[in-house]
Amino acid sequence: MTSSIFKQEFHLKADNEQETAGVGLLSFVNISRSGVQLLKRTKAFKAVEFQSFLFPYSSVNSIWAQNVLEVLKHPEFVTIEGTEPSYFISDRFNTLIPAPLFSEKQQTKNFEFVFGELESVNVVQQTMTSSDSVGLFTIPTEIANVTGTAISSSFLTWIDAGSEKPTKAVANVLVEDHQFALVIFKEGKLACSNWFQINKADDVLYFLMAALETLKILHSEIEVVLSGNVSKSDEVHTLLNKFISKLSFSKRPKNLSYSYSFAQLPEHRYPFIFAAACA
After folding, report:
1. Are 65 and 142 in contact (CB under 8 A)?
2. What is the full DSSP assignment across 2-62?
3. pLDDT tens digit sequence for 102-127
4. Is residue 44 within 8 Å of residue 38, measured between CB atoms?
5. pTM score, two decimals?
6. pLDDT digits (tens, 9 = 90+) for 175-212
């Protein structure tokens, strides 16, 4: 493996071969701008294998596609042949539109109104089952060519899975390289869903506080749940901990069971792919 391009971060395997023999496995592949993750589960909803590859973050779609292609074709990438594979993409180019206002004919125009004109991408719609809205996201054409199959948004799937929230105010902060997602639920409803580009930990605090002020939520009353590329006592956690009293890390879905090897993986690290595996 060429470590300067990508590296394998995790490879968690089934406890024994009987867990995967003749049980009808499903594979879930999540593609982000800084890596690829593969999760295999049984049809009985047991996660039995997980693999994560990391490569340098790139905002250039052609470079991103090349990185993805090298991972998917590398001998160390676990085969998905004989399984039922589903592909997902996580990126900041997505939005939610209330269903009564949605027009399929205008979806590209509406999307570009928010993000500006985008070249060489497909604007795709995704139905949201837990809210009266339609999700829109983009797939770079080169990424679509790499997979050669339908791709869903793991971010929108994650929101959909977490839409049934208690009435208390909850902010989900998911940190990736150079960007983070902020999803806020207020009074049991989705109140904010956005991505922000970041250069330092202060940016996360700034955008979080600005969103809370806009929604008229006191920082002393919000529960903030962290996930993604963040850990206890790192810069982001330390900074938020100074201002947020109710700060915690996310947990893996309880409607999945897991092989023992999954104890090696921090529960909050890759929420998108586990939400996808529950959909």
Report:
1. yes
2. -TTT-EEEEEE--SSGGGTTTS--EEEEEEETTEEEEEEE-TTSEEEEEEEEE----S-HH
3. 888 888 888 888 888 888 999 999 98
4. no
5. 0.91
6. 998 899 999 998 888 888 999 989 899 999 999 999 99
